[in-house]
Amino acid sequence: MIIGLVGKPSSGKSSFFKAATMIDVKISPIPFTTIKPNIGIGYVISNCVCKKLRIKCNPKNGRCIEGKRFIPVKIIDVAGLVPNAHEGRGMGNKFLDDLRQADILIHIIDSSGTTDEEGNQTNNHNPMRDIEFLEREIDYWIYSIIQKSDTLLSHAKSNSEIIKILFDQLSGLSIKNKDIENALSKFNNPISTDFATTLREKSKPIIISANKCDLKSSKNNVEKLIKSLSAIPTSAEAEITLNKANENGFINYISGGDFKISKNINKEQEKALKIIKDNVIDKFESTGIQKCLNKAVFESLEYVAVYPVANPNKFSDKDGNILPDVYLVPKGTNVKELAFKIHTSIGENFIAGINARTKKKLSSNYEIQHNDIIEIAFAK
To answer: In this structure, are residues 289 and 44 in contact, taking their beta carbons and an 8 Å threshold?
Structure first.
């Protein structure tokens, strides 16, 4: 599971990355601050099954706080993209090559309108132009890769041949056969930007983050972006501040919600927190960072969380750790596929699954449901 962060220079991508991962990265208003991609681990949050079971879990990866399970996901933040990058402007298409394995993209928009398409300071810039040019650049990137198979495609005698050629060429972009088939059903000519657009929409879905939502100049743009594109208002700077205050014990805060002051703070700190409360939390319910990550994984990609265990009676692994692991798998994944995901040898020697709650045996084609707890029985 890889979430890619994209956007023009100075849109707040690196701030979003830091807010999501709390990894210190260079943040600057100067375009192209990010040259090499930043890679880190963020978390999606799901209600942990421990609460309903009334047991205390001890996760090996991630953590559980007040019944909220933090499940790790990989996040990559790449260099900013400028118009006509496919012609070599800015960093060119280099940043797109860093996103080959991304399952979904979060487009970080500067909703304040104070930076132009190149990331330079300006006023009254329309963020819709940023969305249009970025999607166009990704389309040209995919199109340029397809073009490399021009000769082979021109000699293909059937759709199945075309699909095989395209899959071989595009598999490195995490593009699936069904994505190619869907695009071909709409456009007979695969060497076209229309075909590339359809592939991008299916294989690299995009969520819009209306960043800097707390700035005065953002109000109208945020409203338009929410209405037209279901954008999520975000303030990466507010999330960073709240995470740091939480780490230092000044507030109690779980990403995605409100906060409570937990000990005495000075007037300057109190003022900073009040600004976040008034301009972000009360207006938009949260900083939006967690909402973007959760929407990407659980809504757009339709992943579900599953807890594999070795002992279904104690909901533990072989060492007695209770609910130690959570796997994120695409909706429709069956038990045998989960077994292979845990370990190849477990999949190869698969016998059956067992629902740890009901103790009922599950066939190999049972589709995993969100928050299932499953033991995999296999030949040893």
So the answer is: no
